[in-house]
Structures
1.
Amino acid sequence: MDESVVDVGLENIKGVGPKTREKLVEGGIDSTLGLAVALPSEVKGILGGEEEKASKLILYARQHLEKQGLLEKEFITAREVFQKRKAMKRITTGSQNLDNLLLGGVETQGITEFFGDYGSGKTQICHTLCITCQLPPEQGGLGGGAIYIDTEGTFRPERLFQIAEAKELDPEEVLEKILLCKVYNSSHLELVIRGLSKFVEKYNAKLVIVDSVISLHRAEFIGRGTLANRQQRLNNLIHKLLRLAEIYNIAVVVTNQVQSKPDTFFGDPTRPAGGNVIAHACTYRIYLKKSGQYRSATIVDSPCHPYSTTRFQITENGIEDIST
Ligand SMILES: Nc1ncnc2c1ncn2[C@@H]1O[C@H](COP(=O)(O)OP(=O)(O)OP(=O)(O)O)[C@@H](O)[C@H]1O
Ligand SMILES: [Mg+2]
């Protein structure tokens, strides 16, 4: 990522002098928003000193953003909520059926999770969305770029090229608007997400993808004793993504693996990994499964969507409806 982009907003925050700012930036908190969504323990870890001082800085950052209308006030009227919901937009997946399942496509202001087994199509959906989000609104896009955080090394620009061509877009131009960040371990992922807001602004990104969201934490935190710590860090990470989605009115898409639950006697014994932490923060959870040469998608645990299933296919053009 481009290291020269640093949000200069931090020095406007009460209590943040040049030295403190420098330390925060070094620690990965390089914007006012980054500070506003940080945890006191994180800030304390970077600055040293008392946690109380860290909490105050976070509070000042929040107040600053609230004044600028960038952060939600603690109490807002239902009308304001309604207005905000009306500003919500959707990105087409390329399949009308999958869009219908999502009531029109992948929503901004929330997190959509695609989970499923190996080869179920999670990464293919992510690649397709990087292209479709660049389409003009009348074609189901948001006319903006995408940020792709790849934890698995499966990002393929050639595939993006292919899908862009199929959608009759200029592939070179399209690739220019997709920012890739390769992430190697869980701390790196946390750091990247902490500093994400300035890239969203600079690249006018309308979509942030994390493929996949918990595999690194899952691999690194092994054993029961480390579970609470892992869940807390995941909770922190996923809520930062949610805040980002709300503040910038962008879509966040995460992928997740399945975890086998051998004690399930009825229905499908698989669940997305990550437990309640991920479940509570995601607005939509879509379970993907191979179904012959096609894929099935089922919406689970949604507050306002009925339980339903649909099918789609993966082709050279990306994600598509099954041709009849
Ligand atoms: N160009 C293409 N044309 C048709 N099908 C393709 C193409 N590229 C990939 N696929 C299909 O997509 C599948 C891989 O899906 P994908 O990589 O999205 O899985 P995943 O859910 O991300 O799996 P994992 O858990 O391993 O990351 C392939 O097995 C293939 O069936
Ligand atoms: Mg994948």
2.
Amino acid sequence: MSIRIRPACEAELDLIKAITVESFGGVSVDHGIEQQLGVLAGHDWKWRKARHIDADWAANPAGVFVAELDGSVAGYITAVVDSAAGRGRIPNLAVTASARGRGLGRALIEHALAYFRAKGLEFAVIETMASNPVGQSLYPSSGFVEVGRQIHYACRL
Ligand SMILES: CC(C)(COP(=O)(O)OP(=O)(O)OC[C@H]1O[C@@H](n2cnc3c(N)ncnc32)[C@H](O)[C@@H]1OP(=O)(O)O)[C@@H](O)C(=O)NCCC(=O)NCCS
């Protein structure tokens, strides 16, 4: 088994979005909104969630990395830099279901943290849903400490 992490190219965004929508069922605010309010504006939660990847790419294309497992892309992470604040943020991270449990997720986080350090940043932030047990295990064991909890609300207009 070989794991390689490298910068993504724009042509891989559709693949990254496909990994995103297959991965975030039950563990994303967008899915939670749809479960409570139904489909909105003619688009399901997957359409909405996939747009986050476009936003991450627009914010920092150099901070989108893919993980290859034995030569095939099986996961990704996005890393956004706020140099003035000294802050790196990881908005999105996913590994395709069949490749999980082999260390790709942890390796992607370590890669993003090394990227932030190389940029001279002082701290990094990441969020997870309370419904996501993996995040609540993986992030503390990757060096993150819990700093607060947020509740997301939505209403129909
Ligand atoms: C989160 C995710 C990227 C992890 O990817 P992965 O490649 O399976 O991660 P790893 O193999 O590096 O394993 C990470 C750790 O999580 C642990 N883990 C896995 N499933 C777990 C679970 N259900 N509960 C608690 N810990 C769990 C593993 O044991 C491992 O810890 P270890 O290294 O001490 O053994 C992947 O599960 C995923 O894509 N999930 C859906 C999308 C998602 O939740 N993204 C993050 C949003 S905050």
